[in-house]
């Protein structure tokens, strides 16, 4: 392999996992587990699992179809593909056939695996929630601040929250110091929150909003405690 040393190869091994976020790698793990269980049951040899053949991949999708949602199966396939890429193994699955199989699996999604459409949040709902909270309580204030910022900033809730406290990382999660209120030359205020990292913007991006006075009262009352 030319003049590449073992250390050079280790650098590559250390680099590639960073192509996916930690949460994405964790979710892909479920797909890989199911893939290997499937291959074990079918007595598929290790060397036939990667690179995977088109017929084997389609058989895997067919086995899952009707039992899992199309979205889950698609995520499993993304994990298997990422596993190939991570280890430098060609992914030779024809796109038309693969896409058709995933489309069919989505059509066979069991009814219990489909989430019913929910009513959208409105200012009235937020106001009702506010009536049940005590903003002098740290937990209530944090919940309301998160709700109002996500609502008026039109952001994904996952970008403003952490699944577990121990997972908090100031390098990628929002901190009080990431929020500010700026005023332009005409006296109009805008709330700005910097998200250190998102899937679409690894370098981070600003979320900002300005709304009618009533809306801003909700936001700022929720954020007041958050900023302390």
Automatic annotation (TrEMBL):
A GO molecular-function descriptor: DNA binding
Record's keyword annotation contains DNA-binding: yes
UniProt cross-references to InterPro entries, sorted A to Z: Integrase_recombinase_N, Phage_Integrase-like_Recomb
Record has RNA-binding as a keyword: no
Annotated keywords: DNA-binding
PANTHER family tied to this protein: P CELL-TYPE AGGLUTINATION PROTEIN MAP4-LIKE-RELATED, PHAGE_INTEGRASE DOMAIN-CONTAINING PROTEIN
Entry protein name: Tyr recombinase domain-containing protein
């Amino acid at each position: 392999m030319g003049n590449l040393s073992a250390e050079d190869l280790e650098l590559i091994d250390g680099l590639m996992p960073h192509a996916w976020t930690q949460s994405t790698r964790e979710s892909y793990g479920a797909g890989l587990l199911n893939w290997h269980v499937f291959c074990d049951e079918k007595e598929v040899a290790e060397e036939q699992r990667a690179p995977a053949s088109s017929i084997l991949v389609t058989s895997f999708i067919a086995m899952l179809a009707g039992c899992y949602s199309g979205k889950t199966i698609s995520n499993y396939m993304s994990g298997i593909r990422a596993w190939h890429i991570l280890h430098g193994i060609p992914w030779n699955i024809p796109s038309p056939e693969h896409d058709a199989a995933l489309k069919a699996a989505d059509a066979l999604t069991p009814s219990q695996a489909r989430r019913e459409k929910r009513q959208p949040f409105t200012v009235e709902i937020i106001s009702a929630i506010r009536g049940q909270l005590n903003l002098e309580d740290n937990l209530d204030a944090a919940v309301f601040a998160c709700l109002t910022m996500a609502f008026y900033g039109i952001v994904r809730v996952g970008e403003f929250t952490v699944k577990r406290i121990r997972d908090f990382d100031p390098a990628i999660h929002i901190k009080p110091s990431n929020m500010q209120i700026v005023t332009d030359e005409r006296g109009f205020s805008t709330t700005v929150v910097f998200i250190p990292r998102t899937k679409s913007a690894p370098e981070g991006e600003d979320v900002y909003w300005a709304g009618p006075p009533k809306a801003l009262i909700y936001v700022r009352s929720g954020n007041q405690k958050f900023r302390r």
